[in-house]
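TICKET: design request
STATUS: open
ATTACHED STRUCTURE:
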């Protein structure tokens, strides 16, 4: 671009694609690809957890079904069954948004947010003397309660790891991409 064009108000790099040779998207590094796959796996884990809760609610009979109508320990204004239904809806909404969204940073942020909310709920249960597992995946038989509590804690740890690592990777990628674009614009505006 000549000085005359710059003086007339031409925008530097106006006719150039943002990422030459690749259309509108940059070539992803291995960390970004792993982050995408991890976040998609996180959405599938949310769907699996919601499905386990639904099946557990459908199979619930006897005294355990009556206990679900008692107020929640953490949220005393809501019954346990209403809280589990709300969690199912939240898990399905976040999983759907993650699977349908094209913004990788938003996808990772949604999973990080929801898993952090779940972690906070578990800390509240522990602080109120109820113990860490919340039994939200249900009771399938008398001897398998510990297994489902362990599965719930593993799911929570996996979602926390996936969400926060994806958020860090995507945030660093955006920051690096923004700095790189800024340097290119600056270089092209000075005619280097």
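STATUS: resolved
RESOLUTION: sequence designed for all positions
ATTACHED SEQUENCE:
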């Amino acid at each position: 671009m000549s000085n005359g064009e710059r003086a007339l108000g031409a925008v530097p790099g106006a006719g150039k694609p943002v990422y030459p040779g690749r259309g509108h998207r940059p070539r992803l590094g291995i960390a970004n690809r792993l982050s995408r796959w991890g976040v998609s796996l996180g959405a599938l884990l949310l769907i699996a957890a919601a499905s386990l809760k639904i099946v557990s609610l459908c199979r619930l009979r006897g005294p355990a079904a009556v206990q679900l109508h008692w107020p929640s320990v953490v949220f005393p204004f809501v019954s346990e069954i209403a809280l589990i239904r709300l969690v199912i809806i939240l898990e399905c909404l976040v999983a759907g948004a993650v699977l349908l969204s094209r913004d990788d940073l938003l996808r990772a942020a949604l999973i990080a947010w929801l898993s952090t909310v779940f972690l906070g709920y578990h800390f509240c249960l522990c602080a109120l003397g109820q113990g860490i597992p919340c039994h939200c995946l249900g009771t399938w038989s008398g001897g398998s309660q510990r297994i489902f509590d362990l599965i719930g804690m593993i799911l929570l740890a996996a979602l926390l790891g996936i969400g926060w690592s994806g958020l860090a990777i995507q945030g660093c990628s955006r920051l690096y991409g923004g700095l790189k674009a800024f340097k290119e614009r600056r270089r092209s505006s000075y005619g280097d």
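CLOSING REMARK: The chain has one domain: 29-189. Confidence is low (pLDDT under 50) at residues 16-23.
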